[in-house]
Amino acid sequence: MAKREALEAKGLRVLRGGKVILRDVDVTAHEGEVLGVLGPSGAGKSTLFRALVGERLPDAGTVRLGERDVTQWPLWKRAREGVGYIPQSPSVLWDLTVRENLVAFHRIVHGTDGKPEERAEAVGLDQRLDVRAGELSGGERRRLEFARATTGDPRVLVCDEPFSGIDPVGAARLGELLRARAAHGTAVLLADHHVEEALSVCTRAILLLDGAVAVSAAPDAFKEHPLVRGRYLGTFHPRVA
């Protein structure tokens, strides 16, 4: 049975200062899929993600969440309808504890305190509930952001540079959480400059070049595609542990 479309973007175009950042981009993410959105710096990955979650409305094109057209919906409304988001920049509330971060986010999105103990346990932070977010390691902060973003069991989880600033062990642990979320039925989209980690998690990857989708393939085929090797992977070196 074919998996249902969780999120679909058609003809997305975004301009900035008269310059075209996204050029009629089409992206579909299915339930249970981990879709990698990869490409060199300046390709438009973060702009695409901001358009998908409602942080930046497109100049043209549509975004659908399941059967609903959410193109003009702001970020908070999409969050309440099942779109989780881990932005590229750290988004924890540094002076609040892990528990307070989880409660605050759940109140904003759902209007209740939720169950912070359960969310913390799910990401291995149950022993850190009363620790200030500013005292967490990079990997712990990312897991806290993951716990916040998956509050309410989202249908779609958009992750911009989730492996940034964390060591290989932390990256592997976060990768397990992302795969588990997809196995639960969520459509996961991620962009990251750590190519090996990203492709190890993905079930499919697209290459974004100059604001347009140039390649879409399974991870192994993606790595061997001439355009990927020539315009993208050739600019990176393997991470040294």
Q: What oligomeric state do the depicted chains represent? A: single chain
Largest sheet: 6 strands, mixed
- In sequence order, what are the helices and strands, one letter per element? EEEHEEHEHHHEHEHEEHH
Taking Cα atoms only, what radius of gyration do you get, to the nearest Å?
17 Å
What structural class is derived from the secondary structure elements? alpha/beta
Query: How many structurally independent domains?
Result: 1
End-to-end Cα distance, whole Å, is 40 Å
Query: Count the helices. How many?
Result: 9
CATH architecture: 3-Layer(aba) Sandwich
Low-confidence stretches: 237-241
CATH H-tier superfamily: P-loop containing nucleotide triphosphate hydrolases
Name the CATH class. Answer: Alpha Beta
For this structure, the CATH topology is Rossmann fold
The mean pLDDT is 90
Could you tell me the strand content as a percent range? 25-35%
What sort of overall outline do the alpha carbons produce when their principal axes are compared? globular
**What's the β-strand tally?**
10
Helical fraction: 25-40%
Cross-sheet strand order for the largest sheet: 6-7-8-3-9-10
Strand and helix map with partners:
Blueprint: E1 5-16, E2 19-30, E3 34-38, H1 45-53, E4 60-65, E5 68-69, H2 75-80, E6 83-86, H3 98-110, H4 116-122, H5 138-149, E7 156-160, H6 168-183, E8 187-191, H7 195-201, E9 204-209, E10 212-217, H8 219-224, H9 226-231
Parallel strand pairs: 3-8, 3-9, 6-7, 7-8
Antiparallel strand pairs: 1-2, 1-4, 4-5, 9-10
Helix pairs in contact: 3-4, 5-6, 6-7
